[in-house]
Amino acid sequence: MTIEPKDYRVGAGRAVRLKKWPTLGKPFYRGEKQYRDILARQQSQLDKLQKLLYADRRHALLLIMQGMDAAGKDSAIGHIFASVNPEGCEVFSFGPPSAEELRHDFLWRAVCRLPERGRIGIFNRSYYEEVLVVRVHPQVLAAENLPHVPKHGATLWKERFRSITELESHLCRNGTVVVKIFLHLSYEEQRKRFLARIDEADKNWKFSLADIQERQFWKHYMDAYAACLAATSSHAAPWYIVPADDKKNAHLIISEILMARLKKLDMAYPKPGPTRHEELIQIREELGE
Ligand code: ATP
Ligand code: MG
Predict the structure, then answer these.
(1) Which one of 89, 142, 227, 276 is CB 3.0 to 4.6 Å from 272, fit for a cystine?
(2) What does the pLDDT profile of the chain (289 residues) look like in tens digits?
């Protein structure tokens, strides 16, 4: 069974009704052994693609991971990138903004951490929180010291969607491939994962009271996500809605999406020109046998 990235892609300009998108899809593996084999193959292919990305030095890859608490963002990042050279990729997790970050526009802190050409940058949460958690709790806007807050609430989010899509189009024009993943978790599966964080001693540290409080706003988050995914999925930077109730399946799907995007780039290892070639032959002779 092959994984088709287009099955998960949100078409540009399309409305999104999250209830229609599955949180559990057909599994692409049969049993633990097959999962490990497929993942291992993907991990080594991704490592090779990153090496080529680095040698070619014209593109960067930005992976944005969004999802509700316990959707599996950390686990996905850990598994998918386990074999990629640590020098070739960097992960940033975005929590509530610091005092310094609040003194800047809402894109600033993320822009400072964009990957350079040749590298993979992973955002564990991102500037999208500014149209998600902030939309669900608009009172946090007070700390942002905005010069004006449009009277009609919807206008603010529309303006932010525009800032985001313009940034992403700019990045795309300048060589950064932007891949955005929404890990689509069900309310019930979140409950099970929270219970595991309480029941299993080695997961206790992950349990947070704040996460339980946010669960009460589930419906508001789903509405905010639906509006955001529809408004910001573009040809340049599409969103992919990945079923997240089965973590292993999600890992296989995301890996495939990333590799498909990288394979579409016209990348090559630099070839030595005639002068360089002669130079190398001469150095070879000097080094002797
Ligand atoms: P887990 O899925 O394991 O719970 P997490 O991604 O929630 O991990 P935490 O450190 O628990 O990691 O939470 C980060 C918190 O920071 C989230 O609740 C998120 O909504 C919040 N956050 C991120 N960006 C912003 C922002 N711009 N404004 C306000 N809150 C933000
Ligand atoms: Mg959390």
Answers:
(1) 276
(2) 799 999 999 999 999 999 999 999 999 999 999 999 999 999 999 999 999 999 999 999 999 999 999 999 999 999 999 999 999 999 999 999 999 999 999 999 999 999 999 999 999 999 999 999 999 999 999 999 998 888 777 899 999 999 999 999 999 999 999 999 999 999 999 999 999 999 999 999 999 999 999 999 999 999 999 999 999 999 999 999 999 999 999 999 999 999 999 999 999 999 888 898 899 899 999 998 7
State in Å: Cα 158 to ligand 2 middle.
26
Give the closest ligand to the alpha carbon of residue 78: 1
Cα(287)–Cα(257) distance, integer angstroms? 45
Of the residues 74, 108, 129, 130, which should be mutated to test ligand 1's pocket, given the most ligand atoms within 8 Å of the CB? 129
CB 16 within 8 A of CB 229: yes
CB 211 less than 6 A from any atom of ligand 1: yes
CA distance 128 to 180: 10
